[in-house]
Design a protein that fits this description.
The chain has helices at about 1-5, 15-35, 35-40, 45-60, 70-95, 95-110, 115-120, 125-145, 160-185, 190-195, 200-225, 230-255, 260-270, 270-280, 290-319. By secondary structure, the chain is mostly helical. The two termini are about 15 Å apart. The chain contains 15 helices and no strands.
């Protein structure tokens, strides 16, 4: 009888959306490549899309389960130590400030705001991802001004002014939807319940944000890359290598603490828009090519992961 009920279960809103999600990301990537000039025009609206998708995901978060673990500590240490270590190593080996600064910002770059959406769809624990999304962005906001007090083009900028610039960029997108979701859970439970039911829509908001940011990335390459081919090639190779390292090491580290997928996404999926802004504000603007290209590799990898996950779910449904 239980088996019959499971087979005849009516399709939910989430089931219908999951049926098409494997096709959404490839379409967004292709359109972003072909229509980059037009997509770049809509990038000012990306923070609004990110705010909306985070609000949908934070609505389902159980605040009591949020806690800092050793996984969070190791992820932060990796970003802090490896970013600075690789910076000085590249300076010593090649003497190239541009490549060193590109790798620095690519590793230190905070976790993407949209990581909650993709990670949870791939099976990661929502509370684990939410905790580090907030913690990791706060860490970068504090560490980055310290780094840029002796690296880059803004070494004379006061620490607290630099800290405020980064916090002002991060807080409205990360903190505000989280606080709003907590308020709704407490005072507006019906609205919060409705948001929980349609939280699958956050994936499509993310795909739209991806379309715009990829368009901006490609457009940036066309505008600033023609006269610096050698540096761009070197940054491109480095971005592929570090994309593989960060996803791979993150998955290994996450596996040690019972959430392999969360570890991989939290270390590998970067807020590349923030990385581009940091490079343009504090470093050589050409260093922003690293996070720009990184955004392509991480989204291609995420697309493959989503496709693979969809195939696995189809097999389970058949069995």
């Amino acid at each position: 009888m239980k088996t019959l009920l499971l087979i005849s279960r009516p399709k939910t809103y989430s089931d219908k959306m999951n049926k098409f999600r494997s096709f959404v990301l490839p379409i967004a990537i292709v359109l972003g490549l072909l229509l980059h000039e037009y997509c770049a025009m809509f990038t000012p609206y990306v923070p609004i899309l990110i705010f909306a998708m985070l609000l949908l995901n934070f609505a389902a978060v159980d605040v009591k389960k949020l806690k800092i673990t050793m996984l969070d500590v190791w992820l932060m240490l990796f970003q802090i130590v490896v970013s600075m270590g690789c910076y000085w190593l590249v300076i010593l080996v090649s003497g190239s400030d541009i490549i060193a600064e590109g790798i620095l910002v690519g590793v230190l770059c905070p976790v993407a705001s949209s990581v909650v959406v993709i990670s949870c769809m791939l099976g990661a624990n929502r509370e684990t991802v939410t905790t580090y999304t907030i913690l990791g962005n706060l860490m970068v906001a504090i560490v980055a001004p310290i780094y840029f007090s002796f690296i880059g083009q803004q070494q004379d900028m006061p620490f607290f002014e630099s800290l405020w610039l980064i916090l002002k960029r991060v807080s409205p997108i990360i903190a505000l939807p989280f606080v709003l979701a907590l308020c709704m859970q407490h005072w507006l439970p019906k609205i919060n319940g409705f948001l929980c039911k349609i939280k699958g829509a956050s994936f499509y908001l993310w795909a739209l944000a991806l379309l715009f940011t990829l368009g901006q990335t490609i457009d940036f390459m066309f505008l600033h890359g023609r006269e610096n081919i050698d540096s761009i090639i070197a940054l491109g190779i480095a971005s592929v290598i570090f994309c593989a390292i960060q996803f791979g090491f993150g998955k290994w580290l996450g596996g040690k603490y019972g959430d392999r997928m969360a570890g991989g996404q939290l270390l590998g999926q970067k807020n590349t828009a923030m990385g581009i802004w940091i490079a343009n504000t504090y470093l050589n603007p050409l260093a922003s090519v690293f996070p720009a290209l990184y955004s392509i590799w991480q989204n291609l990898f995420n697309s493959w992961q989503m496709w693979k996950k969809g195939k696995e779910e189809q097999k389970k449904d058949v069995n």
